[in-house]
Amino acid sequence: MSLSHLPRLVRTASFGLAVLYAAVLAVSVIIIGAIVYWALEISLERQTTERIDADIGLLKEELRAEGDSELIEEVQRRSDVLGLEYLLLDAKGTRIAGTMPVLSPALGWSTVELSTNRSGAGSSRTLHIHSVELDNGMRLSVADDYGSIEDMRRAWIEAAGWCLIAFLLLSVAGGLLLSRRFLRRADTIRITAESIIRGDLESRIPLHGTNDNFDRLSLTLNQMLDRIQALMEGLRYMSNHIAHALRTPLGRLQQKLEAARKTALGNPSYETALENMQQEMEGILSTFSALLRISKIEAGARQSGFSEVDLSALLTTVCDAYSAAAEERGKVIGADIAPSLWTLGDKELLTEAMANLFDNAIKHTPAGAHISVSLYRDRSSIVASIADDGLGVPPETRDLIFERFYRLDRSANTEGTGLGLAFVAAVAGLHGSELSASDNSPGLRIELRFDVAKPPNMLPTALLRAYKADRVRYGHPSPHLEKHPSQRPQRKPVRLPI
Amino acid sequence: MLPTLDGLRIVKTLRSAGVDAPVLFLTALAEIDDRVEGLEGGGDDYLTKPFAFSELMARISVLGRRPRMTTVETILRVADLEMDLIARRVRRGGAIINLQPREFQLLEYLMRNAGRVVTRTMLLEKVWEFHFDPKTKIVESQISRLRAKLAKDSQPELIHTVRGFGYVIKPPS
Questions:
Q1: Residues with Cβ within 8 Å of residue A495, at least 6 apart in sequence
Q2: Is B164 left (phi over 0), alpha (psi -120 to 50) or beta?
Q3: A259, B33: Cβ pair inside 8 Å?
Q4: Are residues A304 and A461 in contact, defined by beta-carbon separation less than 8 angstroms?
Q5: Sheet strands (E) in A26-138
Q6: What is the rounded distance in angstroms from the CA atom of residue A88 to the CA atom of residue A431?
Q7: Can you give the pLDDT at residue A117?
Q8: A258 and B30 in contact by Cβ < 8 A?
Q9: pLDDT tens-digit profile of A373-423?
Q10: From the centroid of its chain, how far is CA A238?
Q11: Which residue of B has its CA nearest to A279?
């Protein structure tokens, strides 16, 4: 199983660390346990040995002081009372006293294993026996049951096992808890980053005020975002300023060229040169004004002009306007436009955006190309699509075509400002609609998806206007108004110097 | 910019005083809302800076010709071309010419301003209500289609191109 199949919580770095830490601790717990166990076993064995030796010493003393009969009696008495096992044999090896279930243990230390059938369970006992020759020729054996050590061993292993399981469970739980905490903080950073990617440059990571590592990281990231935003606004301000400042002198230049052309009448070479210059000038001016308009649209300033727009009629008009031009260039426009699809928007901007898509399809396709236009309702959205069967756009550059001044290498020599699709993207953004380019195999398909259920993020005036329009049309408030403001994407307009 | 008073206020004052002289806004306020406000406020045309002088001249000349509200024309004529605005029918030399609605509108605008140059931009605004400059030459294509329909029997050309300015419909010279 690859890592990506695991739940997200388990895949975090902190969880991995927690598990690793738990594993290291578990190994050390096992090692410590083993050492303690070993030391305990040795000390228990020594205790047994010492106890047996002490007993033998006592009994030897008894024999020396009191004689045979007293010894026999003492052995008998001890067998009944104490936990140790005794055996007293005479010189011929017959049992005189004691209950040890072993008949003839070897002299010195020995360990004998017995199966005790009488206790039923088929358990076995291990006896640790010490046998000595007494002065009177008798043989005394004292034994201790190793079972107590065995019990201790079993209890120890069992306890250690449970401890280990509990320990591992606690470590994993702790790891999960840590991970969740970590994830939650990481998620707030991710959510902020995503909203910035979506275009909300004002978005910042919330701080917890704990001044921990995460807070400090968030603070630094926020400062970085402030800086980037300032730089971006500066850049935008600059480019708008340049476009705006140059427009007036260029306009004057245009009029001077026009005047010069009048005086050049009758001189064909001058006339052509001036006409070409005039056309170039128009191109420059239209680039500048397109640039400024895109900036304005992106700033959301035009939303006040929103009203209900009949997309079907709009697209039909544009389609009709381009049909003659397309035919002249040997291209066929096929339209499949569903009737009466309305959306809230800016009619003029949408018309221009659609026209730009037609310009694009006509300009960048070879003669004989088919351009199919369609408008249809798809669940809660209205989709306008313009597709051609031309050369298409390579997948890696498909998103770039909506950037300002981006042009494919092969169209570097065709005329155009490189702002047409950027304008479409800006208009789509203003309407909160989704613009996408895909493979029409062959060719390019551009889709504009208007979400009818979710109105575009509107300024209050536009909202009010929509409300009034709905009141007139349907006699009830617009559904847009019933949405809580927090459900609409927030967008602060960026102030531009125009 | 005018001091203290803006152009819009002047036009509104003029209109409320019953002055119906044609008014053209020549302004740097290029927003669509500004244009709508200007036209609703009593302006007859709206041209934004930067502008071509020829464009301004063409618009002024068309405004000067604009018929007063009192005269309602029902039939427009240029040479042997006749447009019946009520029956929405076009004939040339008696033969009916079938036009698409948009082609009819285009021809109507040209004929209402017969003898005056109308620019490409004016046609885009008045016929298609496009207040932008399409990168494809849609007016040129539409005009050549219209020309082909008007000269089916190779009659002389009525719609003339004024290079670099626009078009004019007039009887063949």
A1: A299
A2: left
A3: no
A4: yes
A5: 85-89, 95-97, 108-115, 124-133
A6: 108
A7: 57
A8: no
A9: 999 998 889 999 999 998 888 888 888 888 888 887 777 667 777 888 999
A10: 37
A11: B164
**A248-262, A339-353, A468-482: range with lowest mean pLDDT:** A468-482
A325/B54 touch (CB, cutoff 8 Å), yes or no: no
pLDDT score at A475: 37
Phi, psi (degrees; rounded to nearest 5) at A80: -75, -30
Residue reference for tokens 């065709």: A414
Q: Which amino acid type is present at position B74?
A: T
Contact yes or no for A321 and B130 at CB 8 A: yes
Give me the amino acid identity at B92. Answer: R
Closest to A22 (Cα-Cα) out of A182, A179, A164, A183: A164
Read off the pLDDT of residues A292-334 as tens digits, 9 standing for 90 and up. Answer: 888 888 776 556 678 899 999 999 999 999 999 999 999 999 9
SS (H, E, C) B38-95: HHHCCCCEEEECCCCHHHHHHHHHHHHHCCCCCCCCCEEEECCEEEECCCCEEEECCE
Residue with tokens 């053209």: B24
Model confidence pLDDT, tens digit, residues B86-102: 999 999 988 999 999 99
Nearest to B34 by CA among B20, B46, B49, B42: B46
Judge if ipTM > 0.90.
Answer: no
Task: Using alpha carbons, select from A493, A337, A385 the residue that is nearest to residue A429.
Answer: A493
| Residue B70 distance to chain A (closest CA, Å) | 31
Q: Does A286 touch chain B (CB under 8 A)?
A: yes
* Minimum distance, in Å, between the CA of residue B60 and any CA atom of chain A: 17
CA-based R_g, chain B, Å = 18
Residue B145 at interface with chain A, using a CB cutoff of 8 Å: yes
| Residue among A247, A305, A355 whose CB faces B134 most closely | A355
* d(CA B82, nearest CA chain A) in Å: 24
**Sequence-distant contacts of A38-45: CB under 8 A, at least 24 apart:** A40/A152, A40/A156, A41/A149, A41/A152, A41/A153, A44/A148, A44/A149, A44/A152, A45/A128, A45/A149
> What's the rounded Cα separation, in Å, for the pair A96 and A99?
10
Q: In the structure encoding, which two tokens stand for residue B172, read together?
A: 């063949």
Confidence check: pLDDT of B73 > 60: yes
Q: How many helices (H) and strands (E) does chain B have?
A: 6, 9
- Please name the amino acid found at residue A144: D
Give A371's contacts (C-beta < 8 A, 6+ positions apart): A326, A331, A332, A333, A334, A358, A361, A362, A365, A386, A387, A388
Would strands A370-378 and A332-337 be described as parallel, antiparallel, or unpaired?
Answer: parallel
In angstroms, the CA B169 to CA B173 distance is 11
Domains of chain A: 1-113+125-196 (3.30.450), 198-299 (1.10.287), 304-487 (3.30.565.10)
| Structure tokens, A120 | 């039923």
- Cβ neighbours of residue B169 under 8 Å, at least 6 residues apart? B78, B107, B110, B111, B113, B114, B115, B158, B159, B160
Residues of B in contact with A369 (CB under 8 A): none
Q: How far lies A482's CA from each of A324, A433, A474, A477, in Å?
A: 45, 20, 15, 8
**Over residues A68-88, mean pLDDT:** 80
